[in-house]
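May I ask you to comment on the folded chain given beneath this request?
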Amino acid sequence: MKKKFLYIICVISAIFGSTSCSDYLDKEPDTELTTEMVFENRDKVYSWLATIYNVIHKPDKWSLTADGYEVLSDDITPSERWRQWDWRLTIEKITGTWTINSAWDGDLWARMPLYIRHGYIFRNNVKAMPDHDLPQSEIDNMKNEVKFLCAYAWWLMAENYGGIPFTPDYIAPTDADLNELMVGQSKFDDVVDYCDKEMLEAANALPAVYSDPSKYGRINKIMALTVRARMLLFAASPLVNGNPWYVDYRNYKGEQIFNQTYDHNKWIKAAEACKLCIDEAENAGYALYTEAGPNGGIDPFMSTYNVQIKRWSEGNHEITFPVTKDNDYRNTFLRTTSVREYGGGNGLGVYQGLVDAFFMKNGLPISDPNSGYPTNMLDNVDHQPGLPAAYTYAASDVSNVIDDRSAITTWEYGTGKAGEITPKGTFKMYCDREPRFYNAVSFHGAWLAVGARKYAFFKNGRDNVQTSSPHDAPQNGYLARKSLNVLDNYLTGAITDRQAFAYRLAFTYLDYAEAVNKAYDDAGHRAEALVYLNRIRERAGVRQYTFNAVPVNDPDYIQIDNTQDALHKVIMMERRVELCCENNRWYDIRRYMLAESIPEMTGDDYGMDAQGANAANFYKRAKFQTRVWKKCYYWMPIYINEYEKNPNLVEAPFWVTDESASSQENAGN
């Protein structure tokens, strides 16, 4: 039996990608291992389990050069000139050079089948070793962890590629002919149905919280239910639920990969899955993270700041899917959001559209005539985010008062003084905004807490030096801030040790609000959706929604129409800001096929003028990059080497056409 599993893993590697087997079994030489040796040794069992956990392949919001989901959407915008370094594989995907020849660091096609196979071998071979502190109860738990992880791996592939070769619960024999492994793609719904069953079974057998703190981060009930709920929400959405775009997307058997008949029951199933997750989580002590303010109510600034910073052990029981392995906070996110004075790359910004998406402090969007947003700063002609093309700066466009909210918050990151949000002289675009805005965006004049000074983004100011390394400067007048510990110093290494998470309870609240509103078009279920939507808004410190008639200036509520469409609109607006910069925006854009309607994904992108050396020249609309969007981008392509090696594969929709096939093949030569 010596080396049997090693041989077949290498065969699978040859089919799905170029990754070598040694990458996964590098603890000791492959030639020295047998299946029996691994599963008769406690340490090797845990090492094997750790390999399967690589299914969780840095899904955290800081791995921007790997998966790159935030860059593909319209939340995060890295300096375009960084493409000459490790950002190339991400940035080139938004500038029109993405083809089936383009590599992707996420590379789920190559990696996930290897982890799945590891998982199936583990489940078939692992056994209790009571004499070596490995009891049957631990074996049973590990098998259910692996059951979820294998299903999760299948789902990650399907979510990104659409049609995938799908061979559940199958371990190819060691003497399999290579042609037998040339598996074609299965129907998308078949993958979802299998993963739904596996994830639910695993969840039902796993604890919601481990009593042993050392097991924190291992798969538990809530982690499994959270992923399951989001999978079913995706499966119910227009992209894959009766979408006529994909009528000709068929596998080698001629079967349509995406069902062409809309199935409303999928929304019902998604709503039920979300509610089950919420109920189980709340029963186990999970809750939205809040901190009390000076007035005894929720402090919305500190709550929305520390929900990104605090660990479970520090009272942040909103985290529903922790990622306890190494993450990219220090070397990617902190480095690129830190200004040059503190050793950073100083060029990871946010789009103007995200700036505009945040509400005013009265809870209204900036486009609402009652919001208080300066009307001369709205583009009602070209309908582009940000300032109108004809805008001209005036001295009256900066605030002459301090925004003091010390009655509700102890937050010190606006001026350095507790409760002060913006100082005098702040551009009015950034004044009187909701708390989440100030914890997500660094703008000119915002407080640089680590330096105890204001950010200076005017040309050749301290934080926009154009005379040297202009690529290390904000290209549109902003730096990303959400999840940043604002006191971390990249230069000196005085950095908070951060623990990542993929999901938190707020995700599932908003997933449920969306799903239950879509599933049931009636007043009772809309009221149910509103409960969970309003929990998010209450924590954020903005007025809640109501279907009841209230005055426009009611201090507590904003009236919306009691219709499915009206409620869906505000739910999606809330998702845009609450979940921004957390790998959710790309998920939502894809599900609803929104890219074609988003100016910042389909052409010229505008922000402040980074070449402006004073207020009059900085505060004006300026193009900083041009993006290209194609219909095929909704799905990751099968890399050309994989596509050509297996004759039973069909490329993802719209990636290969009769006109482009030859040119793409020639480009790879």
About this structure: The chain has 21 helices and 14 strands. Residues 637-667 form one domain. The longest helix spans residues 136-161. Residues 1-31, 658-669 have pLDDT under 50 and may be disordered.
